[in-house]
Structure formats: C-alpha cells, structure tokens
Design brief:
Low-confidence stretches: none
Mean pLDDT: 84
Helix content: under 10%
Radius of gyration: 28 Å
Oligomer: single chain
Number of strands: 16
Order of helices and strands: EEEEEEEEEEEEEEEE
Largest sheet: 6 strands, mixed
Strand order of the largest sheet: 6-7-8-9-10-11
C-alpha cells in the first residue's frame, strides 16, 4: 500500500499508511508532545461536519458502540476543563475524575470537588463520603430548594414505598390547601400549616 514516511538522521520517525500511524514502518509506537492544527476525527470522516463549538475532537460515527476511554487502572483519571494553559489550578478548573475506589467526582472552581457518586451509588453534594442515597453537606446553613411555576403550582418532596405516597411542601394545587400553606399530603391534606402559624388537621 502507498505510504508517507518521514526520516530524521537516517531513522524512520513516522510512517503513515492506509491503516496506521506508527513510529516505524512495521509497528506502532509512542510519540512525544505534539499537536494538530485542525480538528481531529476518530472513527468518522469529517470533524468539520459537527457543531463548530465541539468539533476539535470527534469520536465515533454515530453508531452504537462508539466510546472514549480514560484508562487509569487503580489511580485517578480525569477529564478536565481549563481556564489557562499553565501549571496553576486554572489548568484543571473543572471537570470529572474517577478513582481506584470507583468514585465518580465532579469538580468546579480550581478543581474543588462539588459532588461525589461513590461505588455503591450514593450521591454526596458537599461531601466526599455520602452516608445515604443523597447526602447534602455544607459548613454553613444547609437548604434544599424546590421551585414551582407559580403560587398555584405544587412545590414539594415526594415520599413513596412504591405503593403509598406522601408529599411534604407547598401543595396549593390540591383541595383544601391555599397558596403559601405548608402541607403534609397523602390522598388528602393531613396537616396544613398556615403562613400565620395556625395548624389544621385533616
């Protein structure tokens, strides 16, 4: 097959054939630092055919089975977003990491860990060691907010064992409950706390 071969000092340093790029004409090899001036496609013919905002590296041809692997063994592998091309924290400002304990972590602001999903599937926000399926932790006051589409819409947390349901929150869309009243609600309002502090049962 036709090939392009590059030499330096009488030694093959790069060989391009129809099937591979290698450090010699017969085998694959590793390369030192390098760069591509244009976009790169792996498994697809034209990286320029994709959205220009994400076309620098395209992997796959749209078929099932395309993928990109970071092989980190039992160490820590990372996919990062950088604010700077240097050795400071800006070089790993945000992104994801996966470690030997099988923890998937999400990072922002100079690589600070913001969320961890551990090997058992527990998710921690503000903690690296979630103790429940969802564990939220901060060093200050901790709030969880749900926001509805208006005062006539429900904004609540649902509790269920798969058969029975209870809701806790602002349930203004339900019978017997007014806007701004806190409610524990099953099939009907069980407890309603009015804005003034009065409590209604049933």
């Amino acid at each position: 097959a036709d090939n392009i071969r590059f030499h330096a000092g009488g030694v093959d340093i790069l060989d391009i054939t129809s099937t591979k790029i290698s450090g010699s004409s017969t085998s694959t090899a590793s390369f030192a630092d390098g760069r591509f001036v244009g976009n790169v496609a792996i498994g697809t013919a034209d990286p320029g055919a994709h959205n220009s905002a994400t076309a620098n590296l395209i992997v796959g041809d749209g078929a099932d089975g395309s993928g990109l692997c970071v092989f980190n063994g039992t160490g820590t592998g990372r996919i990062s977003f950088a604010r700077g091309n240097n050795t400071s924290a800006d070089a790993f400002d945000g992104g994801m990491s996966y470690n030997g304990d099988r923890d998937l972590k999400f990072h922002t602001n100079a690589g600070s860990t913001r969320m961890t999903i551990d090997a058992s599937g527990f998710a921690g926000i503000g903690t690296d060691s979630p103790a429940r399926i969802l564990h939220v932790s901060t060093t200050a006051h901790t709030y969880i907010r749900t926001t509805s589409g208006g005062t006539a819409k429900n904004s609540a947390i649902e509790f269920t064992d798969g058969t029975n349901f209870f809701y806790s929150g602002l349930m203004a869309n339900e019978s017997g409950v007014s806007a701004g009243e806190f409610t524990i609600f099953g099939s009907n309002a069980a407890i309603v706390v009015e804005q003034a502090g009065d409590v209604k049962f049933g």
